[in-house]
Amino acid sequence: VQLQASGGGLVQAGGSLRLSCAASGRTLNIYRMGWFRQAPGKEREFVAQISRNSGSTYYADSVKGRFTISGDNAKNTVYLQMNTLKPEDTAVYYCAADRSAGKIWDFWGKGTQVTVSS
Q1: End-to-end CA separation in angstroms for the chain
Q2: Residues 116, 86 contacting (CB under 8 angstroms)
Q3: Does the pLDDT value for residue 32 go beyond 90?
Q4: Cα(103)–Cα(48) distance, rounded to whole angstroms?
């Protein structure tokens, strides 16, 4: 599975961005897809995930109510709508896919930079 993330950029605090992640290759058995982020000097952290079959979602507390993850199975694409962005949301955002039925995130895309200015 190959993952291609896009949509990052520079935005002012309070603004919005929409990230996209397109999956290609052996996508048939993808169980869930998600977003992670890594800020400078910090460890990578979970942001949000969506189950491919049920569409159920789960969010980190830090983004709940501001970010929305959605998916288009026909396009093998997931989106992360980010609203009310804060400077602390500044990070490289990574898309990930799980074909292990919930055990591990076994495929990762290259990151896309999101910078929120104050």
Answers
A1: 37
A2: yes
A3: yes
A4: 16
Single-letter residue type at 30:
I
Please check the confidence at residue 67 and state whether its pLDDT lies above 90: yes
User: Do 114 and 93 touch, CB atoms closer than 8 A?
Assistant: yes
User: Residue 117 pLDDT > 90, yes or no?
Assistant: yes
* Amino acid letter, 114: V
8 A C-beta contact, residue 5 and residue 21: yes
Q: Strand 91-98 relative to strand 107-108: parallel, antiparallel, unpaired?
A: antiparallel
Rg (CA), the chain: 13
Strand order in the sheet with 2-6: 2-6, 17-24, 77-82, 67-72
The sign of the dihedral angle between the CA atoms of 28, 53, 101, 58 is positive
Query: For the chain, how long is the longest CA-to-CA vector?
Result: 42
Burial degree of 60 (CB within 10 A; 0-12, 13-18, 19+): middle
